[in-house]
Specification:
CATH class of the largest domain: Alpha Beta
Number of strands: 30
Oligomer: single chain
Distance between the termini: 33 Å
Structural class: alpha+beta
Length: 941
């Protein structure tokens, strides 16, 4: 069954909350776990016939569209072109499968022969059986003969890599012309396949001429975290379309570059099934492109194209699943990145640039057209084997068979399919992993529920234990989440949850990140249990389509406390502070709310799913109590594009974060007097003539305001602003991974996990007397990733062992500083570290109002005096008590917003699930800012 999309009231409310709508009831183990794409016009009817030709809305012309500079099709011309094709051909379907951050439509074009509703329903059923009953599907001759094999081409995920869109539109137009002309080969192609094209995956970047999306994030690094709406749409389509072959078309690498990748190969894939045909298809593309002799297309010195598996020994790998093809591969797909050749013009004049760009685009259009044509032809010629391998990947997952390792220099006689790949597979390619029997996730926390919702959105099957059980020598209560690893997408489940591997000795360099782990970095406890060949856990589970609600609130309490641990707790506290409620940090990682704030706290519990605990308030008399305040955070941006800092700070509910730049400080558009605390994701580059900015920063620190920073920015601030003394040792810029840490009693002790993420890991030495060590690297710090020492032997994991990874200080003016040698906001991924930063910001920021501690009522001795007056017989008064209930407040200026940005597909930090939709009204009342983290509802009876 394929679930399509329809928007009723509940679903629309979920979209307004920024949540991905949950799969329909009945999905889960043994059945599909489809997901819904916000903004899609696809209907929910199973077997909806083809063609599907809802007219696309045509945006107004935009003369500023940077596609013109490249000579490419501007975005506003794409919909009219596609509408024209649907007007003339029943082979063309056009659908909207989501919106970009700025609200532009994401188009899916399908080329296939017309189908009745019954025929479409049959295709849907076969596709589902291929994944969820692969053993039977392999033996079904009717299925194997009649299934329309899906092939998918994605384009323009990097906005200023325009040419793939134009190549796909060129191919689509030519194929439709052939179909309408009655070309027998074209008709057979349409009858035997569904060809899918996501025409522009990043239309905002296409129009603006930027690689990143409108959120200032690289969507092609976002396929595990899914902060961007652009990647969520593709993620959901990946499960719906289930392609056998997928190509993501990029540019520009000078020469045409076609995967498969070089080493290290990803450790969770069935390479013995994927690599033979993947490499052979690349060789076929090379042969056809060379033979086409396209004008302007540069070839390599030996007259070919670049195939990383053959030509790049390291530095262009398929290790991380953050890239589109490496993510899609978990659907049993052969999947490539294709990099088109000639890039952007560097000519001196605009006229020369335009002419040269147009010529280069025309070359890439023709080359890309040929790549698509060759790929489709290769799949057609090898249809049965490639489809059979997809089935076998799913079958192995369901059966829980061990991954089949391929040794170096394998004998091709031991593997089915083309054998050219075997000569290229050497020691650096050798990979593999041991799957556990299950992952067990204790329930009850918002972090655990968020993680489970995210797994479900990826199509991973998760169940809730029906009874208490024991696994791996540990007892778990009923309701515990269980990810049984005998499932079709076990490779994806493992890449999301496992620790990963230390691959430092595999290759000298990596193209991008080398580690990620939702199991380690998202704040939830995740236990790996057993081996894949073990029997199933001794417990029955109920398949989930969404994680149960969380949180609770005590009745008849005078005071309530909340552990400031996890994203939802930070959101709840910021919501209370923005509403004018006094919140006191009592010094042990918990905060307390008094009688005047109980109603607001209960509402926050309902919205954010957090657990408040009744208390008598006596902890408010402690020595370490500190009132928290609603912080306006000034920030500088980390990362390549800088989108993560603002997204995380806004999502956590801090008051309208302000980007701080040297230019803003100089021209007065940024006033540090209005900033409560600084988050420095990167240093400010002060020049010799930037005295105004320099003076503003010095005045900020002299006033006693604080700074929280990453290592490089912290080192700059320490010296520039005389905050503290310390020396920062930074590892190689590309070193990165999941690192193990020990946290001391201090600022982040209540929040910190035992693992963190680091990119360019740093540690601190030569500490001044005013510096406190908050956290250190363990004796063997690198859990997974790629981290070698610098060329001089310094700053490797061995040298970092036992060294401080987080430090804090208070200077003579009372300004507080805390600096991370790790990277808590990295691409919005290490969600479990966000509350570390929040705790540091609260500590470094100004104090707020204290919750009033309870006072003992004075006792009076009983008197025996006679009353001086006779009792009256007046009626009792109806006067109300003098205690005034809390008044309604203005909508707060912080907190997660229930609405999308004005234009459409919103950005969101890692958070999925539709369980919060009934609270839309409450959210509207409680939330006012443009936050990007979505809420959880409280568990109710």
């Amino acid at each position: 069954m394929q679930v399509r999309r329809v928007w009723g009231a509940a679903a629309m409310s979920a979209v307004l909350l920024g949540a991905v709508v949950a799969p329909t009831a009945g999905a889960g183990p043994g059945g599909p776990a489809p997901s819904l794409v916000p903004g899609s016009t696809l209907a929910e009817d199973d077997g909806q016939p083809y063609p599907r030709q809802q007219p696309l809305r045509e945006p107004p012309a935009d003369e500023e569209d940077q596609s013109y500079w490249r000579g490419a099709v501007p975005f506003h011309e794409i919909a009219p072109l596609l509408n024209g094709l649907t007007d003339t051909s029943e082979y063309v379907s056009t659908e909207v499968v989501g919106q970009s951050t700025a609200g532009r439509d994401l188009y899916l074009v399908t080329i296939t022969a017309p189908e009745t509703a019954e025929e479409s329903a049959q295709q849907d059923e076969w596709r589902d059986r291929i994944k969820h009953d692969a053993d039977a599907a392999q033996a079904d001759a009717e299925l194997r003969a009649g299934y329309k094999v899906p092939i998918w081409f994605n384009n323009n995920i990097h906005g200023n890599e325009w040419d793939g869109t134009d190549a796909s539109l060129s191919y689509i137009t030519d194929l439709v012309a052939a179909l309408e002309a009655g070309d027998e080969e074209a008709i057979r192609l349409a009858e035997e396949n569904r060809l899918y094209f996501t025409v522009s995956n990043n239309p905002d970047g296409r129009v603006a001429g930027t690689r990143a999306t409108a959120l200032n994030l690289d969507a092609n690094r976002d396929f595990i975290t899914n902060t961007t709406p652009e990647t969520r749409a593709i993620r959901d389509l990946t499960g719906d379309l289930q392609p056998v072959f997928f190509i993501d078309i990029h540019g520009y690498t000078g020469n045409l570059q076609v995967e498969p990748t070089g080493p290290p190969q990803g450790e969770n894939y069935e390479h013995d099934l994927l690599m033979p045909y993947s490499y052979a298809a690349a060789l076929r593309i090379e042969q056809d492109v060379v033979a086409a002799d396209i004008e302007g297309n540069p070839l390599t010195d030996d007259g070919g194209i670049i195939i990383p598996f053959r030509d790049i020994p390291d530095g262009w790998d398929g290790w991380p699943p953050i890239f589109t093809p490496q993510y899609v591969q978990f659907q049993g797909s052969i999947a490539y990145t294709v990099e088109l050749g000639p890039g952007r013009s560097r000519a001196e004049t605009e006229e020369e640039q335009l002419a040269e760009n147009a010529a280069r685009l025309e070359t890439n259009r023709q080359v890309g057209h040929q790549v698509i044509e060759s790929t489709v032809a290769y799949v057609q010629e090898n249809r049965d084997a490639i489809l059979g391998n997809q089935m076998e990947i799913f079958r192995r997952g369901e059966a829980g068979e061990p991954l089949r390792d391929i040794p170096a220099n394998p004998d091709p006689e031991n593997y089915e399919g083309p054998d050219q790949w075997a000569a290229e597979w050497d020691e650096a390619d050798v990979t593999g992993t041991d799957f556990p029997r299950a992952y067990v996730i204790p329930a009850g926390s918002t972090d655990a529920a968020t993680l489970v919702d995210h797994l479900l959105a990826h199509g991973v099957e998760v169940g809730a234990a029906d009874t208490a059980f024991t696994a791996g020598g540990q007892d778990y209560p009923a309701g515990t989440f269980v990810v049984d690893m005998h499932q079709p997408l076990r490779g994806l489940a493992n890449v999301l949850l496992s620790d990963g591997s230390d691959i430092s000795d595999r290759v000298p360099s990596m193209y991008d990140i080398s580690a990620w782990s939702l199991g380690r970095l998202w704040g939830a406890e995740v236990d790996s249990v057993g081996a894949t060949t073990d029997p199933a856990l001794d417990v029955t589970t109920t398949p989930l389509v969404v994680a149960p609600g969380t949180g609770s609130f005590p009745q008849d309490a005078d005071y309530v406390s909340l552990a400031l641990d996890g994203v939802a707790a930070v959101q709840a506290v910021n919501e209370l502070l923005a509403s004018g409620v006094a919140v006191t940090d009592v010094g042990d990682g918990t905060v307390v709310v008094g009688p005047d704030g109980l109603a607001a706290a209960e509402a926050a519990s309902e919205v954010f799913g957090v657990t408040f605990t009744a208390t008598d308030g006596t902890e408010l008399a402690g020595d370490d109590v500190r009132g928290l305040s609603a912080l306006r955070v000034g920030f500088t941006s980390s990362g390549t594009y800088g989108g993560e800092d603002e997204l995380v700070l806004s999502g956590l509910g801090f008051v309208e974060p302000v980007r701080v730049t040297v230019e803003g400080l100089t021209d007065g558009s940024v006033d540090l007097e209005e900033i409560d605390v600084l988050w420095l994701g990167s240093r400010l580059r002060l020049g010799e003539d930037d005295d105004v900015a320099d003076d503003a920063l010095e005045a900020y620190v002299d006033s006693g305001k604080g700074v929280v920073a990453t290592a490089d920015a912290g080192a700059w601030a320490a010296e520039e602003l005389e905050l503290f003394e310390a020396y920062v040792v930074v590892g190689p810029g590309r070193a990165n991974g999941v690192v193990l840490v020990d946290t001391a009693d201090g600022v982040i002790a209540a929040q910190a996990e035992d693992a963190a993420f680091a990119y360019g890991p740093a540690y601190f030495t030569d500490l001044g007397n005013e510096v406190t060590v908050e956290q250190t690297y363990t004796a063997e710090p690198l859990l997974s990733g790629h981290w070698l020492p610098n060329e001089d032997g310094t700053a490797g994991p061995g040298q970092a062992a036992g060294q401080p990874s987080v430090i804090s200080a208070v200077n003579d003016d009372g300004a507080r500083s805390l600096v991370f040698g790790t990277d808590p906001f990295f691409r919005t991924h290490p969600r479990g570290m966000f509350d570390d930063v929040a705790a540091a910001l609260f500590w470094a920021g100004p104090e707020g109002a204290l919750v009033e501690a309870p006072t003992e009522e004075p006792t009076e001795e009983p008197t025996t005096e006679e009353p001086t007056e006779e009792p009256t017989t007046e009626e009792p008064t109806t006067e109300q008590p003098t205690t005034v209930p809390p008044t309604e407040t203005e909508p707060p200026t912080s907190g997660p917003s229930p609405t999308q940005p004005a234009a459409g597909g919103e950005g969101r930090l890692p958070r999925t699930g539709a369980d919060a939709w009934p609270l839309l009204v409450a959210l509207v009342l409680l939330a006012g800012g443009a936050g990007v983290l979505v809420t959880r509802r409280r568990l109710t009876a």
